[in-house]
Each structure stands twice: as C-alpha cells, then as structure tokens.
Fold this protein.
Amino acid sequence: MITLTKILIIFINLIDFFLKNFFRRAYFKNLIYDNLRQNYIVKKIKNKKIKFFIPSKASKYRVDKFFVKEPETIKFIEKYSKQKVFFDIGANIGLFTLFASSLNKHTNVFAFEPSGSNLGILNRNVSINNLEKKITIIPFPLSQKKHSINIISESYLYEGGSQISFGKAVNDKGNFFLPLTKYKTIAFSLDYLTNNKILPCPNFIKLDVDGNEFEILCGAKKILKNRTLKALIVEINLKSKNYNKISKLLKQYGFFQANYLSHEKIISNVIFERN
C-alpha cells in the first residue's frame, strides 16, 4: 500500500531529478533539508567541545564523517599541532580549521575559503566557538600571480559544496564543468601576502582546492624555500598531470613524499615533508 509519505518522497525525488538533469540547479532535496532543519552538532576533540553549524545536508555529512573520511589529514594536523602557524587552504565550512585551533591554543590558523556558499558557515563556526582571535579568515582565492582578477566558478550552491575554480571552470580531474554561479573577483599569491607582511610564513599547510594546487604552489615559491615551512598535505588526483608537476616542484625545495592515503577512487591526500 502506497502511503502519503511514500508519495511525497517520490514527488521530491522526481523534482530533484528534473532540476538536476535539465536545469543543473542545486538538488531539491538539499533545499528541502535546508529549510526544514537548522541544527548544530557538537564534537568532542581532545576533551574540548566544538560546535558546528549544519544548515544543509552536505554540511551535516561533512561533520558526521569528520573523523573517518580523511584520517590522514587528522593525523597530519596532530603531528604538527605544536607549530605556530597553520594555513588551511580550501577550508570549506571549517572542520580542519576548528580542529587545528582546538589542539593548541598558541597555533594561529589562517582559513582560506573564497566560496560564497561556504564562507558564511565558516564565519559562523568560528564565531559560535569564540575562536575569532585565533582564526583569521581569508575570503578570496589564491593564484600564481601576485595579484590578478578573474572569474570564480562554483558547481554547488549549498553549504558544504566543494567544486570551485578560479579562471577556467575545470575540476580536479581536469574536466570542464558547467558552473551554477560565476563572478569576477581578485586573487593574490601566497608570496605576495607574506612578502608584504600581511600574513606570516606558515609552518604547515593543508591544500585542498579541487585542481588549482599547482598554480597556488607556483605563487608560493619563496614560502617553499623558507625552512619555516615544515610540511604540506595536498589533496590531489594521482592520475592527473598536476600530481607529477607538484611532486617535481616540491622536490626542488627539498620536500619528499612521506605518505599518501586514498579516500576516494583516485583522490588522495599526499603528505610532503623535509628534514
């Protein structure tokens, strides 16, 4: 017997399929979730309670899977938690930003996140945990040039989405994607920000930017040369041209590939360290 609930679920799924395949709009199910639920989740990290705002299905999934989806990133941040400066490049809604900040009260965390959809949640997560003095949010993209203006393209319009590019709308597999939103903005290189004393040189970096890793690292050669930087963890497609280019670039500055762990079919978090 078909109940009213089943009919409603079928109706929502049909609308979701229609919007996704014919108009490439944000999933209808996510929109329903966003409007019906405005929740918080509390995670206990090293005897500290961290609160996360989860206004969307995607953001709830990220928080629920935080300790199991990318355990190598957790271990990497724990290993270098005694260092003073951490760059979380591609911070999304702030999971690893808050985690790093909770491990050491003396660590200054800089969270880079240009996505308009994620930025508001990142801001809120920092604020509700009273970490505004420890975490600095940088709301613009990074580039190879010291400063440039170009188009940001996003493939998701809900909080917790991850596909974003600066310049060409290309994903981490090297394929073009059809953006749901795009707008012009300014970007800076990491070397420009540190050379001009806007930001300090980092001790460790997490880099997760869906295909823009090599360009960002090319704009950070002075940072790579600086022995203050101890290690990086880079999320990358191991079958992409970027992987070989990044490995070669980092090798020039004394970094070796210490470890990697695949958390998707061909996407891995690769750790680069130096003695």
In short: The longest strand covers residues 147-154. The chain has a mean pLDDT of 84. The domain at 37-273 is CATH 3.40.50.150 (Rossmann fold).
